[in-house]
# Entry
Amino acid sequence: MSENDMTNGQKKEQVSQSYWSLVWWKFKKNRLAVVGGILVLLFYFVCFFFAEFFSPYLLDTKSDYLAARPQTLHFIDQEGNFHLRPFVYGLREEVDQTLRKRFYYEDPSVKFDLYLFVKAEPYKLLGFISWDRHLFGVDPDNPDAYAYLFGTDRLGRDLFSRIIYGGRLSLWIGLLGQFLTMFLGITLGAISGYYGGATDIIIQRLAEFVAAFPDIPLFIALAAAIPVWWEPQSVYLMLTLILVFIRWNGLARQVRGLILSLREREYVLAAKSFGASDRRIMFNHLIPGTMSHVIVIATLMIPGMILSETALSWLGLGLRPPLTSWGVLLQEVSNVRSVRFNPWLLIPVPFVILAILSFNMLGDGLRDALDPYGGN
# Structure
């Protein structure tokens, strides 16, 4: 084969890649980012879309076992026999007259098998599909059977189910709050960077004014201003708006800096020379050029939204029952006595931490992947 043929063959093998294909290729190389992305999708899939299916009980299903300890999942019984089907032992109640407290212990004489795709309490899947199947549960033909893998709260409600339902609201606040923050921050940041002058000064001073307040006292002051007689839906909306009000300034300042560097680019000057309106230049040319950075910023800010809601609800200043979120669940352990006698009520904490870590790993991976021409 001649040298020219070899050169032509090498040229044919070279395939040009688009920017987004390079981003996807670099993102896949980051294993932590991939794991974080999978966990984020899993959280939204389980908690947001199919909470009713994955929960063995409905949100407010109550039992006679108040603040009961978690039941251990077994495959080997007391006699040492192995069972393919997992099971839990029943609970035996004892009252300590000195402490005036109920305690529950495993009762090996009572055994409840667990089944997959159990027919139990009916619900609306995705909000409109009538169904009555749950991923797992006890024998539906035995009305006395029960399984509380994470224990119950003080009202006898299954904590495992309530964690899944609570994740729906906490994750939705993070997503909705960040969407509104992006809308407000991108719009004000683009206007500030594009027009400059007095407009830039007013918007930036407003952003600095909001940033000058300490987060925690400002959170408490704004959340405490919510009237206690408001409907839960109104409280939820107001809490989301409070989080948006606190968080928009950082995104606006970063978008402003990006717009300042983009507004002198050739394609922007060309659009101006063709008579394009300011609105068209901002929303069709400048803002799309910032989206790769905004996506990363938004992904890294969602955990802050979730943590803020959890902290406010735990302090009793955010969401309140009958709404259920991870923060509302943690209100149950806001005193030392609850932690001492019912430590399983802290189980929502690992889920909050895992969700935060997942978003952070995904955000770090996106930040590196959106610069595919950078270092390895």
In short: The chain has two domains: 65-156, 162-369.
